[in-house]
Structures are given as structure tokens and as C-alpha cells.
Design a protein that fits this description.
By secondary structure, this protein is α+β, with helices and mostly antiparallel strands. It contains twelve helices and 17 strands. A hairpin with a 3-residue loop joins strand 11 and strand 12.
Length: 358
């Protein structure tokens, strides 16, 4: 079904407003685990029927699609033209949609070197909590005066509006890739990754598993081979497989229960030394993104992340008090609450998905 489903979505929302009934926006369900548990009586608002690629201009590197369009369909079309989504989005399941990808704002290993979801969103059309259809941005990169509201939807988990259409910047696929591996201890690896990121190497992935550092080079074959000769290291046995498993959170670190009940996602400055928290670590984005398998209390993880100027998210698992996202400072929390009231005055869209009180 490729017809415009927005009228049905809007009427469902208007009915919910009249009844005072909260709505749980549902796409393919591949990222339903992410975020807080919402109000129990929320009615599902299903978006997967609102699908279809609306326009694709390979020469302009721009694609526009409805929110329910599957990520697999978009990536297959781009691959036919030698192009890709720069932020290397994880699927976490066959049902992954474009809307869910943008609403969660999650990027894969290439994100730190090619741009985030937010960097690639050019414009969007949404249905806000008043039942209004609003359009922001466009289909070109340009200077924008004022607040870029289309990018505000990235990572909002549907709390500000139902995504209807999204325009994205896409990029050509790298001509050639090579993954190198280096055996290293943690302090040495953090230092090396920080150094490599400050040098002009064609890096598209940089990770560390507490034993081996993995460095992916991408670009023209001549440039990649020249970098490989200077950097040394050994060629990975299965470079593409390693990065795919990391993107989709497969393999021992992510799937072996004995490593820890909870999976934490910590964002810190890349050069930050190893954090004082118990558990097992996996480093991505050159050390800027740190995955922690641990049974440590949520409060301890949040405090340690705040101490080093970063923030933490309980990515998989459930703390006893429902804490998932790093507590906000009062001023920032007030800003979030005011934005929620402006877009969704009745608080009906994914209530409590981000924070308990909005």
C-alpha cells in the first residue's frame, strides 16, 4: 500500500484529542525496547501503512519518503545507485522504518565520521498534537535563520509529533574499504584512537573491544592503501561482518547475558580515560560512544557520566525506578517541557517515553 495514509492518521489523532486518550506511535517495532515504558492505556497509532518513496534525485543526493517506508527498501534503492545513508543506521529487526530511525536518532559506526541522523535530515512533515500538519525545512542544504525544527524531531521519540515525510541527504558509497586490527590495552587504545582521529586518515569506523582496536578506512583505493601502509596493523579477517555485527548489536558483548543485565550507552569526549564503573566495555566512535554491560545502579552510572561531562542512557534493560535517560538540569528540563507543550499541549503523543512528566 503506497497511498497517502496521513488523513487516517490525522483523524485518529483528532479522535484521541476528543477522548483525551494518549497515543503510542508504532512503526515496525524494531526499536520498541528503547526509551521509557509509556502509559499503559495508550492506544497504538500505527504508521507502517503510511509508506512509499516520494522522490529520489541521485544527482542531487536527496531522498524523500514517507515515515512508514522500510529502511531496507530505502537502502536497497540507494545501493542500486551506489549511494548510502551516511550515518549507517541500525535496523535491530526486519521491521525498521525511516520514521523510527529518525525518531530514535540512532547512528552506527560511521556516524562519528560521516555525520549523524540530525546532520542528514533536510526537512520533514509532521502531525503535531493539535492535529495540525506542519512542514519544516526542505530538500536542499542551506543556511537557515532561526531554529531548525525539522532536526528537532530527531531523537524526540515521537513526543513532539507524528513523522509523516522526511527528506534526507544521502552520500555516495565509498569506493573501497579496508579494516585493520591492532592488539592493545585500554589506555593505549584510547590514546591511539584519539591520535588517529586528529590525523588526516580516511577513517569511517574506529572501535575497541578491550583487546583489539578496529580501524576502518574508506575512500579511493589508492588513499586507503597508502594509509594502511603507514598505519600498519593487520587486515581483519571479516571487516564488513565485524562492522555489521557492531551496528546491529550482535556478538558476544551484546548478546551474552553473563556480562551484565543492563546495556548502557554513554556519550563522552573521545579522550576521556576509562570510567570508574564496574562491568565490561565496548568503545565505538573512537571512544566517544561507550557501551557498558553492568549491573551497577542507574544513579551511579548517571553520576559518573555527569562527572566527566557526558551523559548516559539505559539502552537495554530496566532500572527499578524507571530511570532510562540522563536527568536533565533544571533549565534544560524546562525547555524540553515547554517544547512538548507547544507541539503537544494535551500530552497525548508517546507520553512518558522520554521523561516521566512529559
Amino acid at each position: 500500500m503506497n497511498s497517502d495514509h496521513s488523513a487516517f492518521l490525522r483523524q485518529t489523532l483528532l479522535d484521541a484529542i476528543a477522548a483525551g486518550r494518549p497515543l503510542a506511535i508504532a512503526g515496525g517495532g524494531s526499536k520498541a525496547f528503547y526509551g521509557r515504558v509509556m502509559t499503559a492505556d495508550a492506544m497504538p497509532l500505527e504508521t507502517t501503512s503510511h509508506r512509499g518513496i516520494l522522490s529520489f534525485e541521485p544527482t542531487e543526493l536527496v531522498l524523500t519518503a514517507r515515515s512508514g517506508t522500510s529502511l531496507a527498501e530505502i537502502e536497497a534503492l540507494l545501493a542500486e545507485h551506489g549511494q548510502t545513508l551516511a550515518f549507517e543506521p541500525p535496523h535491530f529487526g526486519e521491521g525498521a522504518t525511516l520514521g523510527g530511525t529518525v525518531a530514535c536518532g540512532l547512528g552506527g559506526p560511521r556516524r562519528a565520521f560521516a555525520g549523524s541522523v540530525r546532520d542528514c535530515v533536510l526537512g520533514c512533515k509532521i502531525l503535531n498534537g493539535k492535529g495540525e500538519i506542519l512542514s519544516f525545512g526542505g530538500q536542499v542544504m542551506k543556511n537557515v535563520a532561526g531554529f531548525d525544527l525539522s532536526r528537532l524531531m530527531v531523537g524526540a521519540l515521537g513526543t513532539l509529533g507524528v513523522l509523516l515525510e522526511i527528506s534526507l541527504k544521502v552520500l555516495p558509497k565509498p569506493e573501497y574499504e579496508q579494516t585493520l586490527v591492532f592488539p592493545m590495552a585500554t589506555p593505549e587504545a584510547l590514546s591511539a584512537m584519539n591520535r588517529w582521529c586528529g590525523e588526516p586518515w580516511p577513517i569511517s569506523g574506529l572501535a575497541y573491544d578491550e583487546s583489539w582496536a578496529y580501524l576502518r578506512l574508506a575512500g579511493a583505493e589508492s588513499a586507503v592503501e597508502a594509509a594502511r601502509r603507514k598505519l600498519g596493523g593487520d587486515a581483519a579477517a571479516d571487516g564488513p561482518g565485524f562492522w555489521h555485527r557492531l551496528k546491529e548489536q550482535r556478538g558476544r558483548f551484546f548478546e551474552y547475558p553473563a556480562l551484565g543485565t543492563d546495556l548502557w550507552r554513554l556519550s563522552v569526549a573521545p579522550a576521556t580515560p576509562k570510567l570508574d564503573l564496574p562491568g565490561h566495555w565496548f568503545y565505538d566512535w573512537g571512544g566517544a560512544l561507550r557501551w557498558l554491560r553492568s549491573d551497577a545502579p542507574a544513579e551511579s552510572v548517571f553520576q559518573e557520566a555527569e562527572r566527566v561531562g557526558g551523559h548516559a542512557t539505559l539502552f537495554r534493560g530496566r532500572s527499578g525506578d524507571g530511570a532510562v535517560f540522563q536527568p536533565l538540569p533544571p533549565a534544560l528540563k524546562a525547555l524540553h517541557r515547554n517544547l512538548k507543550r507547544a507541539f503537544d499541549p494535551d500530552g497525548l503523543l508517546n507520553p512518558g517515553r522520554l521523561y516521566e512528566d512529559f
